[in-house]
Each structure stands twice: as structure tokens, then as C-alpha cells.
Amino acid sequence: MDSAQAYGYMLYFVSLMTMGGIYAIMCLGLNIQWGFTGLFNAGIAGFFAIGAYVSAILTTAESASHLGGYDLPIALGLVGAMVVTAVIAWLVGLLCIRLRSDYLAIATIGIGEIFRLILKNEIWATNGARGIAKIPLPFETLSEPWNKIGFMLLVLAVVAVFYFVIERARLAPWGRLMTGIRENEQSARAAGKNVERFRIEAFVCGSVLMGLAGGLMAHYIKFIGPGATEPLTTTFLVWVMLIAGGSGNNRGAVLGAFLLWGIWSFSEVLTGRLPAELAVKAAYFRIFLIGLLLQVVLQRYAGGILPERRPTTNKVA
Amino acid sequence: MDFINFYLIPGLVLGSIYALGAIGVSLVFGILRFANFAHGELMLIGAYTAYSLMQFTGLHPLIVLPIAMLFTSLVALGIDHTFYKPFRASKSTIVIVASFGIALMARSAVQIIWGVDTFSYSSGQIQMPMILFETLRLSPKHVWIVFSSIVLMIVVHVILTHTRTGKAMRAMSDSAELAQLTGIKTESVVKATWVLGASLATAAGVFLGWDSHLHSMMGFYMLLPMFAAAILGGIGQPYGAMVGGLVVGLAEELSAYPWLGDSPLLSPAYKAGVAFALMIIMLIWRPSGLFRGRVF
After folding, report:
1. Is residue A182 part of a domain?
2. Does the global pTM surpass 0.80?
3. Hey, are the CB atoms on A117 and B276 less than 8 Å from each other?
């Protein structure tokens, strides 16, 4: 193996860890919603897209083709992405959170669709189908590969921070209450808990992470448009990551994200070597196989790789 | 007259298509107790199967429809047996995740077999609309779609009210436990539900493809309006689903009519939002739907 080849492998590894990390953030978000609280969010890609667009609009240089840009520092762009996603998720929560899981699932699909329509059609703000380009990458002044490595470290640091915060929250009364709402809403209500408020809290917290992941992705690929990510594939991948890793388990969520992204990316490398005609079809074959993997996990290993472990209580009944 | 030609008639056509799809969504929801996210993909499979049959035989869509219905029913039964049956006893939320996966698997299967290009049932020639009373323009395919939908809905009505299976389906939709106590074989009712749902979905898919064209995302785009229609009519209420489908279809088309001033009331780009808004209003205001369906 010569040094150029080794360098190529190293860059590939860095991109794997970066993308895996971005998905891990979304996966932790879904874990708060579904794993802890039992809220079905099928509109992950919608919140992801909002975060991506907000951060892109805030940080790009002024442009005639879309709203802004306001040329703000990237950190502010990411904070803005989280704030805007939080506000939108809160509004969505007010509207939909009382719905039972089945209805919530349908409603979130609808919300994701409407976000997509808005981003595609409000050309004055988003430049429509042509998207927003020239989004700044952090550490841009560093030379390659250090800028990429720097970004990877940033993403991994974000994953680590949120892992510890969410793990802490899971063991705290807040997390136990969320599990209580998931397992038996009536008893949580009987215990005097404001179930709606806590469900909205979980929904907002999870969606904020999805927005943050969107912001990071926009900076990473330096472009965001309606076609940059296929919304259903993104949403679906995050779901498979969480279920395979272990719904309700934060370590499982992170592990699932890196593992599934590894499989997904590696299979793309393999199918990329096929002739063009077959390669297009192979892309759909990969989605089919990921779907099949989900079914196998659901039926045979319902807990995932790292099943949920409830915090033990001091009292023994 | 523009109102009738370009808003009311397309609304009725779309409404009939939604109604056919929504009956299946509503019955599956009522009898199997889960929101089947893959229902749009049954439409997709039905529509593409009909396309291949037409290519193969050169026959009219309405003639190949029964064969496509049969094929889609078999696919639905196979999916149910392999992927949904293991979860019959568990919490319904797990099945929704499974059906979400099935939807993507079914769509990618269609994309692998038929590719992602759009197809059309009509091979190029444009049928001239009939002109009635000098200003009313009726396209023959629209007449056929609405007429066939009405026939199919009458068939559904006869099945539900005059056959043992149909009565058992309604009983199970009302209360699965009571139905079981009276000796109804639940598994055979479940099978009948899938056959009925898949057949109607096939008809909806073929009509939609006939009205416009076939593409691999058509099933997904139908999902929201179909659920809106089913919820509007009341879950588990097939007649409610018919009315709900018409209401959603008409609302989507009529929302683009210039009711105030000269510009469309709502930009046609946001049509999909109409179904969503109707659904949310209904779920908050009256979750049991217009026809007093079940609330889960």
C-alpha cells in the first residue's frame, strides 16, 4: 500500500466518522422521542432540512438568490438552527402531541412533506430547487486533510457532549418519567404529571438534535437543496439505526448510527463499481436490503444490539 | 364553466381515487388495528402490474384491472403473512415501524423491476374531450374513472352487507373481541380484508395512473390524502372513507380556485397541505370522524 492509497483510506475513514457522527446526533434525538417517550416521528428529514437551511442562510455571504445570507459565524448558525427547529417543533407539538402514536406517525409524515414543499416553493428564501451553495466549512483556513479532521473532531465532540447529557437525563427523574409515559400514560397522569407538557418537551428536545444534525451536514457538504438528501431515505436510515442499535439505549443509538452508516457507505462503494446501468438499480437494492434488515431485527432481535436497560430503583416493592 | 371543467370535475376524479384507497386504509386500521404505511405501495404495485399486463396484451386498463387486483392481493397476503402476522399480539406501534419498512422495500422493488422513469397508459394519442352544452368539457377517461369507482363502491357495499365475510369484517371492525366470541374466524377475516383493500388500492392506482401517469413516488404521495380521508370518515367506517375521499379530493382541487380576486386561493404547489390540514382539524375537533368511527 503506497502512501497515496493510505491517504485515500484515511480520508474515507474521516468521512465515515463525520457522517456517522451526524447520524448519531439524529439517532440520539429519535431515541429521546421514540426510545424514551414512545413518540413516533416519521418527519425526521423535515427537521433536519430546517436546521440545514437555517444554518446555511445565517452563515453564507450575502446573496441575491436566497434570503440573507447574514455572514454570521458558524457557531451562531448552528445555534440558530437549533432555536428555529425548537420553535417549529414546539408549534408542531402543540398541534399534534395529543394524538395517539398511529395518528402522530401520519401527522409527522405530513409535516415533513409540508416542510419539503415550503423549502422547494418559497424560492425567495431558499432558492428553490437550485438550493444554497457556498456554505462555509469550519476550519476552512486549515489545509486538507486537517480541515476535514477538524470537522470530524467537532462532530464527534458534539456527539460525546449530547451522549453524556442525554444519558444523564435518562437516569434522572425526567428520563424515568418519559419511560413512564411510554409504558403507561394513564398511571403517569394519575401520578399528577402533565403528560402533554412532557411529551412536547421530549418532542422538542429530539427535534432540536435533528436540526443541529442538519446544520452540521449543510456545513459539511457546503450545499443544501431539496435534492441534497432524499427525505424518506434519511428518515428511514435513522429509524433502522435506532432499532438495530437498541431503542431506548443511548449507547445503542450511537453504535447503531456508526454501524449502519458504515454498512450503508461501504455497500455504496461496492455498488459504485458496477456498470452504470446496474449501479442505479443497485442503489434501490440497498434500500430494499436495509428494509429487510429492519424486519429481521424487529422479528428476531426486538431489543437491538444493546437492548434498553432501565435504571434500577432503590426501593424493592 | 371554468370552475366545473378545471376544478370540480378533476376534484371528483381525484376524490373517487382517494375514496377507493381510503376504504382499504380504513378497514385495515379498523380490523388489524394499525396504520398501514405501505398502503400507497399496494397502489403502486397494482398500477405497475397493470402497466406490464397492458404492454404484454395490448388491452385496455379496465380489462387488465381484475388480473392486477388478483396479483396485488397475493402480494398483500404474502406481506401480511411474512411481516405483519408475527406482530398480531404485540403493541400496534411496532407494526407501524414494520409497515414503514415494507413501504420502502416495496417501492425499491418497483424501482428495481420497472426503473424510475415515468410511464403512461395511453401510448401517445390524446383523446379529445366531449363537449356538452357547448361549454362543459368531459374527458372520456374521467367519465370512466368516476363510473368505475361508483361501480366498485357498490360492489363493496354488497360485499359488506350481503356476504358472511363482509358482515364478519364489519363486526370485527366494531369490536374484535366480541366478534371472536361469536365464533368469527379472525384470521380469515384478516385475509379477506387484505384482498379487498389491495384490490381497491389497485383500482385507485390504475385510475390515478390513467388520469395522469405512473411514477415510483405515486404511492407515497397518496398516503397522506388517503389517511386524511379515512380519518375524516371515521376509522373502520368504509362508507365514511368514501365520503372522506370525495371531500379531500374536492378540497384539494377547489383550494386552487380563485375564490377571492384573481389569484388561486392557495398555490397549487401546496395542495398536499390541504389534506393534512383537514386531517389535523378533524383529529382535534372530532377524532371519531364524521361517521363515528373508532378512536385508538
Report:
1. yes
2. yes
3. no
